[in-house]
Write a structure and sequence with these properties.
The protein is an alpha/beta fold. Helix content is about 40%, strand content about 20%. The protein has helices at about 5-10, 30-35, 70-85, 100-105, 110-125, 150-155, 160-170, 190-205, 225-235, 255-275, 295, 315-324; strands spanning about 15-20, 40-45, 85-95, 130-140, 175-180, 210-215, 215-220, 240-250, 280-285, 300. The mean pLDDT is about 95. The structure holds (3S,4R)-3-hydroxy-2-oxopiperidin-4-yl beta-D-xylopyranoside. Belongs to the glycosyl hydrolase 10 (cellulase F) family.
Length: about 325
């Protein structure tokens, strides 16, 4: 069988990777593929490095009180990755979701929130220093209309929270590439323009920024035609880009026609990354339908990954291999 990371690196990319979540790592059939030499050269923790996660999941880093860090789940993923020679994409320092209520509802002043954010990101980033290729320092900062999302950090600090957290990340691990990551910036429009403008503005203020992550949660038959031109606009600023959370969902039950289209869609995403020299790698938002987040999020949708629920390779797998 083709080895996707091996194909990616032979084609000049830095990695081919996947998201992994705590529960996945207790599944022997899952681990066999995850750790198949040359298949994945990079992993992203799907949840374990986030600020918090709804109870009862233990996989979060500062979930219940200021300064009380828990790294059990994140360390498990990092240790396994190291053992298997896989680099990490850190995910993430700040996001409006999975943000604990002690932060959102703590009534903190601007100075306090800035310090809370700096400490959170520094602690997280320094812990995995040396193992991380890139960090999603800021996740999903924009609304669809290109305005900044309203949440505790913008509401209290304005958009300066972005430069604060990027500087904290740089100081904590000077070798990690620092990314801003979002979805629907794969389409040209207000949101991708806002990302372009944000990066330009950070660069003009000498704020460290190395990359833009395009999440790429797509629907079968609807890979945006603008993917390449948007990536080229981003890389023209002198930053790199990556496909950070690729999955391609379909209406359930999966049909042969949809699975065949999904193969073409996966192949076209990989080909597009190949056509943009500043596109450094591609990460699946988990590789198997067994652990995909899609059915739990979008009712009636699923079958979004290149391996099915029983760990059989789908046509999509061949599409990826053919794309490199
Ligand atoms: C998702 C996880 O996969 C789910 O397990 C969790 O319940 C919600 O978050 N964009 C992101 C990711 O940046 O962190 C999200 O991950 C998917 C959307």
């Amino acid at each position: 069988t083709a080895k996707l990371h091996t194909l990616a690196t032979a084609a000049g990319k830095k990695y081919f990777g996947t998201a992994v979540d705590g529960p996945d790592l207790n599944d022997a059939a899952y681990l066999k593929i995850l750790n198949d030499k040359g298949m994945f050269g990079q992993v992203t923790a799907a949840n374990a490095m986030k600020w918090a996660r709804a109870s009862p999941h233990p996989d979060a880093t500062e979930p219940s009180a200021q300064g009380q860090f828990t790294f059990t789940a994140a360390d498990k993923i990092a240790t396994a990755a190291k053992k298997n020679g896989q680099v990490l994409r850190g995910h993430n320092c700040v996001w409006h979701n999975q943000l604990p209520s002690w932060v959102s509802n703590g009534g903190f002043s601007a100075a306090q929130l800035s310090s809370i954010l700096t400490t959170h990101c520094s602690t997280l980033v320094s812990r995995y220093k040396g193992q991380v290729y890139s960090w999603d320092v800021v996740n999903e900062p924009f609304n669809e209309d290109g305005s900044q999302r309203s949440f505790v950090f913008t509401n209290t600090l304005g958009t300066s929270y972005i430069s604060t957290v990027l500087k904290a990340a740089r100081a904590a691990d000077p070798t990690a590439k620092l990314y801003i990551n979002d979805f629907n910036i794969e389409f040209s429009g207000a949101k991708s323009t806002a990302m372009l403008n944000l990066v330009k503005s950070l660069q003009s203020q000498n704020v460290p920024i190395d990359g833009i992550g395009l999440q790429s949660h797509f629907q079968v038959g609807k890979v945006p035609a603008s993917l390449k031109s948007v990536m080229q606009q981003f890389t023209a600023l002198g930053v790199e880009v990556a496909i950070t959370e690729l999955d391609i969902a379909m209406a359930l039950p999966a049909t042969q026609a949809q699975l065949a289209q999904q193969k073409k869609d996966y192949q076209s995403v990989i080909q597009t990354c190949m056509e943009v020299s500043g596109c450094v790698g591609v990460t699946l938002w988990d590789f198997t339908d067994k652990y995909s987040w899609i059915p739990g999020t979008e009712a009636g949708k699923g079958a979004a990954c290149p391996w099915d629920e029983n760990f059989a390779q789908k046509q999509a797998f061949d599409g990826i291999a053919a794309g490199f």
